[in-house]
Amino acid sequence: MKGRVLAADAGELTLLADGHVQRFDEVAGACRPGDLVALHLSPGGGWQVEVVFAHPTGEFPGPGSDAMSFARGRFATLRRRAELLDRTRGWFRERGFLEVETPLLVESPGTEVHLDPVPARLTPGPNAEPEPRWLITSPELHMKRLLSAGAPPIFQLARVFRDGERGGRHRPEFTMLEWYRPWAGYEALMDDCEGWIRALAGGDRLTYQGRAIDLTPPWPRVRFFDALRERADVVEPERLDPDQQLLAFVDRVERTLGVDRPEFLVEWPITMASLARPAPHDPRVAERFELFIAELELANAFGELTDAAEQRRRCLDENAERRAHGRPELPVDEAFLAALEEGMPPSAGIAVGVDRVVMLLTDAASIDEVVAF
Amino acid sequence: MYQTSDIKKGLKFKMDGAPWNVVEFQFVKPGKGTAFTRTKMKNLLTGQVVEKNFRTGETFEPVDVETRSANYMYQDADMFFFMDGETYEQFPVTEAAMGDNAKWLVDNMECNILFYEGRAITVDVPNFVELEITYCEPAVKGDTANNATKTATLATGATVQVPLFVEQNTVIKIDTRTGEYQGRVSK
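^ inputs. structure came back:
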């Protein structure tokens, strides 16, 4: 047995070995925390310790150190994460999706009002002047350009960046899964979610943070305004201003979503349409849904807006609102708008926070537990 | 003034005339909208825990509280008596203020006590304590690499999980914040 000493006292040794914490009793020989050691079975029983590398101070691991978090079982989670990513790729490939990679460093990161892209500078060639760039907050604009260019169904696992977003479920750098179905309605994406998540869970039951979740499809679909009426006791939610709608949602609806079954929150107010098209049956709402399981906001999906003029209007409105909020305006993505002008097939697209899906399936309370660093 | 970005576990602030301590907080940003800080906070006077969503940009008033170091002396009915290490002043702490930490208390233990307007309202015991096991199942010798544990009762009556090879009457070190076994104490 070989590994790193976490604690050594009174013939008792705690070792981080092969990604697991293991305890040994009746250990002979001297070593200190932090040492790399080999344990050999003694002929008379017990263990003989051989120090392979002596830690410079013997003060190891420090509280909050990487080694401490790995000692507490991070490797098991990382193995499971790798498995889930493999199975995700397999699931989409089997259904005819093409895996794509699009730029992370872009000239226009989108104009969303409440997202702050991380700025960068790029020198585009030898002796050229440096130019502003941004890290993407989502690969959506480039993926839609692929749809306009005639792509089949596509998916991507991408790192995305959102400045200032940090919490138990947020990291400024995280992994996003996006997939797009050309010539399909957004209902098809709900079927995909049900199939994919159940394939990852390996069944129709899972437990998250002590709560049993029933994954049997079909998963309930709840309209945004109905949820405000039924769960937040708002009489006419359609008449609230968008800020009040969002506050009522955060205060009284969000915590009720997906508590014992996954729920799709569908038909968002048109003021929160983002890049979704208006619903044909009701212009007050957009073809947008979010998937919640155990209160975790896992996915955001749109019946994609393909109207170039309307898209340009929204980008300009968003920049005006950014200005009003004291946020810098961002360049409108002309290549994306040009692709819409050339015609993008009616399509449905979805973005999933992969780290949160891993949290759900490894029963991790915090996003920090499911990433290596 | 504090901002929402200052909110962290243990931040104390004043709101509606009472001192509050942040127990848990979560950054929430649903639907690509404005960010909120969902804050679970404890009223330090009543112990009441409430949840509130603060919108990014809201501010909070700092609160004047004082921490004093004192040694535990004895318990009388539902009061715990401590002595200030510097002034030798003795004072009582209520059961409510003592909370769960009562299970780690031994004579003369040095604790940090939080005062609000002259009244002891919470007690922090040391992060690590060394206590003797007064009862546990007999030890199992040898390689116990698979992390199996058993329940041990300590001198103060607290119970903790310990590895199978640990014997009764051994003194062990415990992390009071998690209640986890840290190791045997060499004699």
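Residues 142 and 202 of chain A are 32 Å apart (CA to CA). The mean pLDDT of chain A is 94.
thumbs up if we can close this ticket
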